[in-house]
Every structure is written in C-alpha cells, then in structure tokens.
Design brief:
By secondary structure, the protein is of the alpha/beta class. It has 13 helices and twelve strands. 43% of the residues lie in helices and 16% in strands. The strands form three sheets. The protein has a seven-stranded parallel sheet with strand order 3-2-1-4-5-6-10, sandwiched between helices. A three-stranded mixed sheet has the order 7-9-11. Helix 6 links the parallel strand 5 and strand 6. Helix 4 packs parallel to helix 6 and helix 7 packs across helix 9.
Length: 363
C-alpha cells in the first residue's frame, strides 16, 4: 500500500461512528473503492452513510465477522487490496453488564477475519501479496490507566486492560500481531485515544451530554469527574488511519492521540458553556446548563487517566491533528444542533427500522 494508486479497501464496522467517518473520508479524499462490511448491530446507523449509498465506488455487505462463510463470500466478491478492521463491541458499560458478547465479536470475530484474510492473501499473486495490508484499529484502553505524573502511552507501553471491553480489544491486537509473526500476514496496527465528533452514538459521553442538556435532563458525571482522557476529533483520526494503511511499516503500531487531555468534569462544563452560546433557548426550568450536572456512583474498574504520545506517527508519517479540543467540540455541537433528525431517530428507535432493512450482501 505504499503507492497512491486506487485501492479496494474493505472496512469492517463502517456503519459505526469511526467507521462511517472513515468511509466518508476514503470516498471523498482518495480514489479507493470502498466496501463496508457491517452486521448492523444496535450502534450501527445507516443514516450515518446518507449520500454515499449509490456512489459507484461504494459497496455495502451486511455481514457479521463471526460468520466465516459469509466473510469468505465477501472477500471472493470484492477482492480487497486491504482490510481496515474497526468492527467491534466498544462500550465499556455494556461490556461490564455482558462481557461474553465482547469476547465473541472482538476476539472470535477478529480471529475469523484474520483466517479469512490469510486464506485470501495466500491465493494472491506475488505483487498483490506484497501490496496487501491488514490494518487493526484499536484503542488506548488496552494499556490500562496512568497516574497523574506518568508519561503518556506509547507504542512500547505494556498492555494492562481494566474492563472486559479493553481486554477483548487487547486480545484481538495480540491475535493480529501473532498472525503477522507466525504466518507473515502484512499487518499494521493503531491505538487511538477517545474519539468525538459528528454521528457518534448517544451512549458515549459527549453526545449523551449534548442530548440530555437539550432535553433538560441531568448530566450524569461518574464519581468526582476527575477521570482524564485524551480527546481526538474523529476526522483527525481517520486521516491518521489512512496514512497508517498506506505508509505505515509492516508489523508496526502507531499511537494516534489528539494531545488534548481533559478531565470528564471539564469536558461537561466546557460543553455547557458552549451550549449557553450556541443553544441559548434553554429547556423550561433550566437557568444554566451547568445546573444539570449531577455526580453519580462511579463504574467498576474505571480508569483514571489516558494519554497518548503520538510522536511516531508525527515523525514517520507526518500526521498531526488539525483540531484543538475547543474547535473540535464546537464543530461537534454545531453538527448535533443542525442534525436533530439524525439523533431524534436514534433516541426514538426509528433508526432500527432502516437498520433492519439492510441488504444481506452486495449493494
């Protein structure tokens, strides 16, 4: 993938938050043909792909990565030059309540995908084999957490996952590295910090707070709200993913972070202040958006701090974020205010009807 010629890229989980942003980016900014493979589970939203469904360079396959035979049909039909693997169960709270589903999708599903990709790759000609890439897209949560004075996570940080979600992602990363080492599959990996931006499912912190505030509902903050995260605007992330795929070293890992460490309480308070400016018509009975903040019992095993050293991707691939946390948060809020139809359909459950109507394979 070192050259810039048109490629056929298979994106798993392309109807999710980061996946849909990646699909939009690839179709708008590259000449790639893009196949989106997604099982359309609860967090997938076909409306996030509005406007691209009929593009000639785009295909959609409604397929579960746990279904090996279906994966083989997709590979045979699309014949990808690269796989960008984003399909995953990803919500920490849900993993605490139901860990088995996370192991099934994130571990066994990744194994299925690797085996399908390996068999396909083994059948390619020499040139196509050399050009093929399997890109594992992962999270900084696999590293556990940091004390306030600790240096940020880097590619050399040992894995120490805290939640069932993080453990399942750590396992999938290990599988990808093993398939690269044992079988020679040309793999690259990336671990990102907390993403935010347009089209994020409302269970995540920033959209959850936006929608609760607009409805005049409490803004629940876990514990003391002092948990620190490094925030990365989703379009900055997907630019980095594209660079890692095309120019990253085989077998290498790239940490992608926004360099925006913020504690959760500061995030919520900053968002409240932006709402005062951009949505001044507050709900009835709400004098100030900050008045809605409510501290709630902390969740089990809640990591206190994440931070990423993105030095490798900056120095090797020339990537750097374009958005500060303030500019990215403003863009995010503006998008949610302008696209009420998108999130209202999610809150009402109407988006499920479109999701359940998806075709099983092909366009």
């Amino acid at each position: 993938m070192a050259d810039e010629r048109a490629q056929r890229i298979l994106v798993t989980g392309g109807a999710g938050f980061i996946g849909s942003a990646l699909v939009h980016w690839l179709l708008a900014e590259t000449a790639a043909e893009v196949a989106n493979l997604d099982a359309l589970t609860y967090a997938a939203n076909p409306a996030s792909l509005a406007g691209i469904e009929m593009q000639p360079r785009y295909r959609f396959y409604r397929t579960d990565i746990c279904d090996r035979e279906a994966l083989e049909r997709v590979f045979a039909d699309f014949q990808p030059d690269a796989v960008m693997h984003l399909a995953a169960e990803s919500h920490v709270d849900r993993s605490i309540d139901g860990p088995v589903a996370f192991v099934a999708t994130n571990v066994l599903g990744t194994c299925n995908l690797l085996e399908t990709a390996r068999a396909y790759w083994n059948g390619l000609g020499a040139g196509a084999r050399a050009a093929f890439r399997f890109h594992q897209v992962s999270t900084d949560e696999v590293f556990g957490d940091l004390e306030p004075g600790d240096p940020p996570f880097s590619e050399a940080t040992p894995y120490a996952p805290s939640s069932p979600y993080a453990a399942s992602k750590a396992a999938s990363d290990h599988l990808v590295r093993a398939w690269g080492r044992t079988y020679g599959l040309p793999v690259v990996l990336s671990n990102c910090s907390n993403n935010y931006g347009p089209r994020q499912f409302p269970e995540k912190l920033i959209p959850h707070m936006i929608l609760n505030a607009l409805a005049g509902r409490p803004l629940p903050v876990y514990g003391d709200g002092a948990q620190v995260r490094d925030w990365l605007y989703v379009e900055d992330h997907v630019r980095g993913l594209d660079l890692v795929l095309r120019r990253g070293r085989i077998g290498a890992t790239y940490a992608i972070g926004g360099g925006n460490e913020q504690c959760n309480l500061d995030v919520v308070e900053t968002l409240c202040d932006l709402l005062e400016e951009l949505a001044p018509d507050r709900p009835a009975g709400v004098a100030h958006y900050r008045d809605l903040i409510e501290f709630v019992r902390d969740r089990p095993g809640h990591d206190r701090r994440y931070a990423i050293d993105a030095g490798r991707i900056r120095s090797e691939l020339g990537w750097q974020p374009r958005e500060s946390f303030q500019s990215g948060l403003r863009k995010t809020l503006v998008w949610y205010l302008a696209h009420r139809d998108w999130w209202q359909r999610v809150l009402s459950g109407a988006y499920r009807l479109q999701r359940l109507g998806g075709a099983p394979a092909g366009r």
